[in-house]
DNA sequence: TATTGTTATACTCTATAACTATA
DNA sequence: TATAGTTATAGAGTATAACAATA
């Protein structure tokens, strides 16, 4: 069991990442409060800014949100005139979500709020470290659909058939 | 507003961090399920493993958990015999929390579970990038008490007096 | 009076299941 | 029958406020 001389380099990486992410989410929440947007609203807007349009299926997979939760988010955003839902002519079951003009303006504000925030969050990091962090997280983000499509084998963790 | 030729290097860093953190938390949750521990339980155990002992005040500040939530977590852990609460003789209001032998064994299991998990989470990253990430997040973790003690001015975001 | 910890309560967020319409 | 989206509901997680003990 060698319970000696293995004092771990510190906190396990997934734990550090989880805690840092929670901090980031809290800061996002605070910065976005003045826009009456929650972090997930911003996630949707930012995704649409990048992709132009997307079906809800794609949104929930890429943003890692539940289907029913996404409906609520889109209802909010559509109610405020930030996004529009249209039927896909090719498959009338699908809703194609796009960003409205008001939505684009909102995204610009979101960017501004986030830029202000960044210094408060990453003040301890050099510009080089921020670049590293951005690149590393981008790689993780691109390469891991996580729960949705990924998990080829049983590597992602069995659902635990039940203990005692 | 020069809405051209400024295609953002990608997703804003705080958003990336928040999303990656959520992924990490979900993976933690899944890996720890077999131990009937939730991520926050593990956070407490890992913190005590590093510090030996801590008052609850210190725990809630460092782990960014609410006081009432911490009580629940410690009740669970103490009920399972993983931690012990003793009065501080110097200040009988304080509870000093320590890791029991069973708690140390549990922490070892937690480390093992997390190590297994790491490959599934960070498989897209090189060892160098994992080291970078670990170092960067450690710096952030050390230097930013966030909500608790930080936020000197109004930089952390005003609570929004209410719009329309 | 201020502080540490506890309890009780309400609120938010998320996940589950059932339903409609299209394919 | 299967899929995209929606709705209703229950559950977990979190924060807020009042309380007891000690300083």
TrEMBL record, chains A, B:
What PROSITE patterns has UniProt attached to this entry? Answer: HTH_MARR_2
Name one molecular function that GO assigns to this entry.
Answer: DNA-binding transcription factor activity
Q: Which SMART domains does this one have?
A: HTH_MARR
InterPro entries given in the database record: HTH_MarR-typ, MarR/SlyA-like, WH-like_DNA-bd_sf, WH_DNA-bd_sf
Q: Which domain of life is it from?
A: Bacteria
What are the BP-aspect GO terms?
Answer: response to stress
- Record-given protein name: MarR family transcriptional regulator
Give the species.
Micromonospora endophytica
């Amino acid at each position: 069991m060698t319970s000696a001389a293995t004092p771990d380099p510190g906190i396990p990486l997934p734990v550090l990442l989880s805690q840092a992410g929670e901090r980031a989410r809290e800061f996002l929440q605070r910065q976005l409060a003045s826009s009456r947007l929650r972090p997930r609203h911003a996630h949707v807007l930012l995704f649409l800014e990048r992709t132009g349009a997307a079906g809800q299926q794609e949104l929930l997979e890429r943003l890692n949100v539940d289907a029913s939760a996404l409906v609520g988010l889109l209802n909010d955003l559509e109610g405020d005139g930030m996004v529009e839902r249209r039927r896909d002519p090719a498959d009338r079951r699908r809703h194609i979500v796009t960003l409205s003009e008001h939505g684009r303006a909102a995204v610009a504000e979101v960017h501004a709020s986030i830029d202000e925030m960044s210094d408060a969050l990453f003040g301890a990091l050099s510009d080089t470290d921020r670049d590293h962090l951005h690149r590393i997280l981008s790689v993780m983000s691109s390469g891991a659909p996580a729960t949705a499509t990924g998990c080829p084998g049983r590597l992602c963790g069995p659902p635990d058939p039940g203990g005692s």
